[in-house]
Amino acid sequence: MLPLSGSQPVTVIHRLHPLTKIGCATAVTGLALALNRPMALSPLLAGLLLVMLLGRIRLASRLLLGLLAICALVAAGSLWASGDPSEAARYGLRLLIVAATIPISASTTAAHDLVHGLARLRLPQGLLMAVLVAWRFFPVIADQLRRISEARLLRGGHCRFGAWHRQLMLPLAAITIDHADRVALALEGRGFDVNAKRTWYRPPTFHFRDVMSCVATAAVLMAAVVLEWR
Amino acid sequence: MSLVLERIFCRYPGHAAPVLRGIDMSLASGSTTLISGSTGSGKSTLSLILCGAIPNLIDRLESGGRVVVDGEELTLLPMRQVARKVGLLMQNVEHQLFTDRVEDEVAFGLENMGVPAREIESRLATALQAVGANHLRGRALGSLSSGERQRVMLAALVSLGQSLLVLDEPLAYLDRHGTAALFNALGDLSRAGKTIVVFEHRRDLVRTAVDRELWLGDGRLLDTAPAVPSLPRFEGCASPAESRLICENVSFLRGDLPILRELCLEVRAHESVVLLGDNGAGKTTLLRLVLGLEKTRSGQISVCGLDPGRIPTRQLALNTALVLQNPDHQLFLDTVRAEVTSARTGTDAARAELEALGLCGLAERHPQSLSTGEKRRVTIAAALARHPKLLLLDEPTVGQDDASLALVVRRLHAYVNQGGALLVTTHDERAARALGSRIVLLREGRVIDRSVDDHFVLTRAR
Amino acid sequence: MSLPKFSTREYVFAALVVAAQLVISSILIPITLPLRIPGLANTINAPFSSCLLVIGLARLRKPGSMLLMALIYALLCLLISPVIFSFILCGGLLGEAVGTFGFRGYRSPRAQIASVVAHQMGMFPAAMLFSFLFTPARFVKPVAWAWLVAEVAIATTSLLGALAGIRIVRELVRAGKLRIEA
């Protein structure tokens, strides 16, 4: 998730506090759903695209095309039904804005930093650690599922639903249970205690850049509101 | 004495015999001890007792005795408190990594123990220095090799200031370079006063690097370990016949990284070829290409006359069988007998394979209730029961003790003598000599040598 | 905010069940979502998700277990979109309400199945309400019918998945792989 040393440079967007990014994304998404005029929605979209540019976030071309196709489909459907280009533009833009917020947080925030950020909300420690474990072992479980699927093919696995369910879900469940036992052992072996107070080595902190980001977001939201009600 | 074990006892539910029968042991500070034993001898159980997982985390068994480290009894303490004195390096270090970055990972345990943030940085730096991993600072864990990740974990344990380090099968995922690097680091740590206990069944690789070797057998610790048994060697059979696998100038890239470079290989009927190489040499990738799970960048592959890149994998599976490194990926039925029985060859073939691999007593057991070594034999039996023309084995020795391995080796020899073609990948040189009529050394995606006659010995830096 | 007391082991188990759910969703949802058929993504994903959730509930058994797994999933989705976070939280709250107030925990297979099906069905209305914001007013009534059909489909596939999950639990318990506390 977070580009690290030796890969891509870390940008100002990467350095923002996770709660800043989530809060701004929530505000932008919420307002986008309330606005009706395409003219008012445009600054929101432009702002998000600027953030993606600043964060050097690149989407795979296949993903980008798929996304644009969906938005175009929604807009076209609306145009066909209503005959009103403004209404079509509204729905297309809303969908684009909601979709554009997705890669911003996901690409620029490490799960560890998210958990650190959420710790400020005083969520239970066990819950935060569970979030970290789930994210950390997501690629591990994904790899296991891929191997199970290949093993099924190599044994000439057939696609009857019952067989498919058993051939995939039973090994996946067994492997997940194994991993859970070992990970719990590892976590306790590293001194983790659900009830004990825990320190944080490098917790993300709020900086001037977070304040500026919130101010900039508020300005864009204000501009959108003004354009809506003019 | 740094570590004292008194009358350690353990019995699993449903088992008549205890796995550990009153173990007594004393280890001095700064000593490095190897504890070996066959699969099921209790090595893992003992390592879990040492780190406090038994009886605190794993409590559904009968256990007793005392564990005393630096004069403090740890037996009844929760594992997270035992962790202040005893560090456990697991067989697969992936289960112990919880963050993305080297520094965060080393700091993780310190955070859990409530160490103030200002103190974490200095302890982290000292720990990385102690294990020779300073150069890994700032790196993403995902960009490190298995050996490097293990080194980071070692630093993470060292940072906690534990006086006893327990390593459970640390060589399982290491090649020879990683093994040497690990034992160099451990040598430095033991000279610094840490007590180290290594549980490892590959004694031949470790015994010269430790102060003392103990053998766990029949639930007891013995000072005298048996000599490293040799495996049955491959006796020559009929001359290799028709080609079952041909690889011509096969190249493969993962992203920009070349994995295989113009590799040429042929495996014929009545032939057993072992691909020997370190981790990352391209062995598993080659198997995946042979079965059409990946596509070559250039070159050609022919499997029993078919191009795996052009036909469905299911069709290829009619004449070939692959035994994966992790048997859990291939087990999904409810009895061993069902797993081994193939619709194509029937129950007689299954019965023969169960007998040959010592699985008759386990036939009605659920595969998920077996040990790793037993599961591996089940997957090998299931593959052989399909009477494949070409059999591919990926690291078949992991988790196997010598007795189990000898059974497998004998059966595979018979398969080859009866006309099968066998391709095995391994980094275990002893197993390679036992399994292969021809050994091919692979390094950085290239075939280096078509016969291997060198001898690998690990020596401890003194 | 306080959840019932879970041990480290239980938190980890819940986390890995969620990781497995995420893996399956990440494969199925990108395939089904572009088809723009209301409820199709949820319907296709439900049997697998439900199977895994039942395994999780069978192991955890305490009141709060469904909410725990839903919260882990929802918090991870916070990184993707606050909107998805709200869908999952809705479903989690409904599932937990059924499990805790209807059955006082998840000891029985019936409780596990009911809670999981409620959770799957509970996620969809939130998504439908959200999609009304992309739907012109003249289409709201037909969309409501589509909603009903989708909910029935989700309930059906979720039930099938939950029943498969119960079978898997029984088999894994028999194999000694999954330990169920008394």
Sequence of strands across the biggest β-sheet of chain B? 6-7-8-3-9-10
Proportion in helices of chain C: over 70%
End-to-end separation of chain B: 23 Å
Radius of gyration of chain B, rounded?
23 Å
Tell me briefly what this model is:
The complex is a heterotrimer of chains A (230), B (462) and C (182). With 230 residues, chain A is an all-alpha fold.
Fold and architecture overview:
The complex is a heterotrimer of chains A (230), B (462) and C (182). The longest helix of chain A is centred in the middle third of the chain and has 30 residues, at 125-154. Chain A is flat. By secondary structure, chain A is mainly α. Chain A is 76% helix and 0% strand. Chain A starts with 11 loop residues before the first helix and ends with a helix. Chain B is α/β, with parallel strands linked by helices. In chain B, the strands form 4 sheets. Chain B has a 6-stranded mixed sheet with strand order 6-7-8-3-9-10, sandwiched between helices. A 6-stranded mixed sheet of chain B has the order 15-16-17-13-18-19, sandwiched between helices. A 4-stranded antiparallel sheet of chain B has the order 2-1-4-5, covered by helices on one side. In chain B, strand 7 (164-168), helix 7 and strand 8 (195-199) form a beta-alpha-beta unit. With 182 residues, chain C is mainly alpha-helical. Chain C has one domain (8-175). Chain C has 6 helices and no strands. Chain C is globular, with a radius of gyration of 16 Å. The model of chain C has no long low-confidence stretch (mean pLDDT 86). The interface between A and B is large, with 51 and 60 residues.
